[in-house]
Amino acid sequence: MRPAEKTRKNLIKERITVSARTLLLRVNPTGDQNLGKYAYYAFIFSILILFAAVIALTNAYLHYVNVSSYYSYERKILAPFSLTGYEGMFFVVAFAPLPDYLIIPFYGYLSSIGEFNVFAAFFVSLMAMLFEMGIEYAGGRLAGRAILLKALSYFKITENDLEVADKWIRDHGPFSIFVATFIPYFKNVTSIAAGTLKMNAPWFFLSNFAGFAIRFGLLIYIGYSGVFVLTPSFDYRHRLGIAILGVIALLYLTGYLINKANTIISHRAGNSRS
């Protein structure tokens, strides 16, 4: 086999063996200046935008969720949630096993039909999440590592999960907490890790406040004003705008992953030559 052909085959093999974990979870595995942390943050947000665009557009044509078909039953179905008031809202957001990206739009929708005040719903939801994050932060700060890991094992959180969160926080500081508020599950792990690392409490809560204020503001808006995307009357102009946004996110994701994979491969090839 000729040397050039052998080198080409080796490079193809290296390209195949770039793991998904390295591409998706490691911010800068090579130390290359082209793989900055802000490009990675944009990568995370692009995933969220693409996911939301796909859900909205597929539902616009397939109508697998159609809130208008349940309109006549809404008072009867939603009555238990309204009767619990803002106190019930606080405990549901803080402790319910359902993800908040389903709960918060739901309370936004209840506000749109007059069951709650939309601004009060936003404030109560935000305080509930800060309360939950505070409990996890205090648990990480006050409990010993061994006791904490034993307790967390019941929630399927492993020591490796905490180590990943530890490194994330060390690398990015308070901004890591802000970014984690947009990532389901990871926000809980980073809150615990922030406690074990004894992160400055004001910075921890300020980062959470900023992140959840943005996230819950968008989710409340989706439930309050954006619920129309779950009806057959979803306007075609909005579909086009969401489609364009989704395509832009997809192009960025593709370009970022290709560039990252090529950078990793080039880095490995350079190390193998030396």
TrEMBL record:
Q: What main location does UniProt list?
A: membrane
Q: Which UniProt keywords apply?
A: Cell membrane, Membrane, Transmembrane, Transmembrane helix
What's the protein called, per UniProt?
Answer: Hypothetical membrane protein
Per the database record, which ranges form the VTT domain?
A: 116-225
InterPro entries named among the record's database cross-references: DedA_domain, VTT_dom
Q: How does it sit in the membrane?
A: Multi-pass membrane protein
Q: Which residues cross the membrane?
A: 38-65, 77-96, 116-135, 203-224, 236-258
Signal peptide range: none
Q: What Gene Ontology cellular component terms go with this record?
A: plasma membrane
Q: Where in the cell is it found?
A: Cell membrane
Look up the domain of life of the source. Archaea
The record's annotation in PANTHER family points to: ALKALINE PHOSPHATASE LIKE PROTEIN, UNDECAPRENYL PHOSPHATE TRANSPORTER A
